[in-house]
């Protein structure tokens, strides 16, 4: 049981680390895409930008 418990814990830690990395990559890609889209559209100071809303 002890070996199985340690094995499960090691797998869980690696899985959490992988999910965290994927989350950071996804948010980073989304932020870059939003920034590029906002740069390509006309300036409109009245509306909140999507990238600012994402950071909140």
Automatic annotation (TrEMBL):
Gene Ontology biological-process annotations = cellular response to fibroblast growth factor stimulus; negative regulation of apoptotic process; positive regulation of ERK1 and ERK2 cascade; positive regulation of fibroblast growth factor receptor signaling pathway
Give the source species. Answer: Rotaria magnacalcarata
Q: Which UniProt keywords apply?
A: Cytoplasm, Kinase, Serine/threonine-protein kinase, Transferase
Q: Does the keyword Transmembrane apply?
A: no
Q: What is this protein called?
A: Uncharacterized protein
What's a Gene Ontology MF term here? Answer: protein serine/threonine kinase activity
List the subcellular locations: Cytoplasm
Q: Which InterPro entries match?
A: Dual_SerThr-Tyr_Kinase
Annotated Gene Ontology cellular components are: cytoplasm
Question: What does UniProt give as the signal peptide span?
Answer: none
